[in-house]
Amino acid sequence: MNTDFAPRPSVLDRVGALLAGVRDWLDDRGKWAWIVAMILGFIACWPLGFAILGYMIWSKRMFSCRHRHHHHHHHRGHGHGRGYAASTGNTAFDAYREETLKRLEDEHREFLDFLQKLREAKDKAEFDQFMQGRKEQPAEPQAGPAAPQA
User: Fold this and answer.
1) In sequence order, what are the residues at sequence separation of 6 or more whose Cβ sits closer than 8 angstroms to the Cβ of residue 65?
2) Among the listed residues 15, 16, 34, the one whose alpha carbon sits nearest the alpha carbon of residue 25
3) Are residues 110 and 65 in the same domain?
């Protein structure tokens, strides 16, 4: 008997992989593919249509442009400059866009650093207040054997 084999994926694993593949396929085609799938689901079996509708609302695919967002990250780095997006053909606008995005990134980083320093200052103030409170508390007598009274 050979015990050096990989465990066979369960039925749920295979169904999950199949559904993930269908989800990715629909995402690649955009929101309209999801809407068509939902309509076909209602035609084939109304609970299936409701399940697709529920999933679209739950995963926010119904109200967002997830398809375009997905492709933006997929193609990132294929454009000019820092890779934010492909060239528009207008070099002045592309330069302005790159400069503005770099400035926004720098401001965002500075803001995050400021927030970190603010949190550290708040933590230090709370700790100092705690230590001051400990110093001001009178020392409690140790609970030990009672001394005999004379």
Assistant:
1) 31
2) 34
3) no
**pLDDT tens per residue, range 14-37:** 888 888 888 888 888 888 888 899
Residues 6+ apart with CB under 8 A from 94: 80, 81, 87, 88
Integer Cα distance of 75 and 83 in angstroms: 9
Decide: helix, strand or coil at residue 96: helix
- Assess whether 15 and 60 both reside in one domain: yes
SS3 call for 54: helix
Query: Is 143 a domain residue?
Result: no
**φ, ψ for residue 107, nearest 5 deg:** -65, -40
pTM, two decimal places: 0.36
**pLDDT at residue 58, as a whole number:** 86
